[in-house]
Design the sequence.
């Protein structure tokens, strides 16, 4: 497998875990020191415990929609470092129970430690109005 | 100079160019195929011509504030690839002429081509309300 395909496999495994709401699998390939810039507030979340909380928030919105899909993704990778960026699709429900679905931007940074790829940074966003 | 310091120098040169509103210098270390996720719309800007337009928009808002500063920045780099992420500060004026200043999130991806670091991806954002 090329390094690019190794990284695509990590991303695919993670998005599948999100669709399945399997939090242990979501966290599986993450660095304990991950820095997350999530789509909603807070401004940033540092460390795996804060990262985990961002998924509690996401699942409280997604309401088992099962939608968390890569639309397009570029991967730049070598043997030790990688980053990828592209567009994602997700769906959930507003507080009023209205269906919501939209496309957002995602950038991921990965490092290889002891032979294993770890996600050490994620940046999810929508353009500001 | 370590690869990390090479990347920090590229980022410092770029932020200085933004503060000076020197568009040629802003574009200097960018890949022609850069993909930009800017703070405001559009969702994405592909290629150096579209990237350039995002700065026209920024300068029409920043009104010579001279504020475009790194607050904190982590850099992961090896000989061929690098990415960095952190918080930035910028200032400008609303359409009504009111001073605006805020902290935003920034992730940058770089590749080394023919011995030169090039920025091939930028992701600027605020958390969604």
Sequence:
């Amino acid at each position: 497998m090329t390094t690019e395909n190794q990284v695509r496999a990590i991303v695919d495994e993670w998005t599948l875990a999100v669709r399945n709401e399997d939090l242990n699998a979501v966290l599986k390939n993450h660095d304990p020191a991950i820095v997350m810039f999530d789509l909603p507030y807070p401004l940033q979340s540092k460390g795996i415990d804060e990262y985990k909380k961002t998924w509690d928030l996401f699942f409280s919105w997604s309401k088992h929609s099962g939608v968390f899909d890569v639309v397009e993704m570029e991967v730049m990778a070598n043997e030790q470092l990688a980053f990828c960026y592209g567009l994602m699709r997700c769906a959930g429900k507003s507080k009023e129970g209205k269906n919501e679905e939209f496309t957002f931007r995602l950038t991921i940074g990965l490092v290889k430690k002891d032979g294993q790829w770890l996600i050490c940074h994620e940046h999810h966003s929508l353009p500001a109005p």
Q: What stands out?
A: Chain A has a mean pLDDT of 97. The interface with chain B takes residues 35, 37-44, 74, 76-78, 80-83, 85, 87, 103, 105, 107, 109, 111, 120-121, 123, 125-129 of chain A (CB under 8 Å). The CA atoms of residues 32 and 96 of chain A lie 35 Å apart.
